[in-house]
Amino acid sequence: MTIKDLIKDFQKTSQIVADKFYEKYATKELLLAVISHKTIPRQGSFGIIKWYAFHGCGLHAKLSDSEIDFDFGEDDRVDGFDAWRLRIFAESKPNIFPEFITEKVIQIELDNLQKAGKIYKPGTYPGSSNYYWTNSTDI
């Protein structure tokens, strides 16, 4: 498996988790619903999400086959990633991503992708540590 495979699986899983919340609570503004409106519990479980907890500007969730932590980006994007979050995800799938269980290895790969212009980091809050694909063709 490659770093691109890890990122694609991470993004697919973060979108699945977000979609489950969108469907259950009929809103895409999840943090607003948790913090201000208090219409979504800060932590709990439902459906395929065995456990979840909202934090700062993100969400940590455990599914039956993986664990994921992602920050919401601009316009509530859920496709951002960084070395720390990718490591958590890879550790939850050691048989699939054994080469990516250290943050250092992942960061080297991310640095290479960034130098090649494949990913970028806008550095804006929320999700200021998030990288994103530069072009959808890079995925």
Topology diagram in text:
Blueprint: H1 3-25, H2 30-35, E1 43-46, E2 49-55, E3 58-63, E4 67-71, H3 83-91, H4 103-115, E5 119-120, E6 132-133
Antiparallel strand pairs: 1-2, 2-3, 3-4, 5-6
Helix pairs in contact: 3-4
Task: Report what the structure shows.
With 139 residues, this protein is an alpha+beta fold. It has one domain. It is 37% helix and 19% strand. It is built from 4 helices and 6 strands. The strands form 2 sheets. Strands 1-2-3-4 form a 4-stranded antiparallel β-sheet. It has a two-stranded antiparallel ribbon with strand order 5-6. Strand 3 and strand 4 (67-71) form a beta hairpin. Helix 3 crosses helix 4 (103-115). The longest helix is centred in the N-terminal third of the chain and has 23 residues, at 3-25. The mean pLDDT is 93.
The best one-word shape is globular
Q: Beta fraction of the residues? A: 15-25%
Number of domains: 1
Helicity, as a percent range: 25-40%
Major sheet = 4 strands, antiparallel
Strand numbers in spatial order across the main sheet: 1-2-3-4
**Average pLDDT metric:** 93
Termini separation (Å)?
A: 14 Å
Number of distinct helices? 4
Radius of gyration: 15 Å
Oligomeric assembly: single chain
What class would the helix/strand composition place it in? alpha+beta
| Low-confidence segments | none
Tell me the number of strands. 6
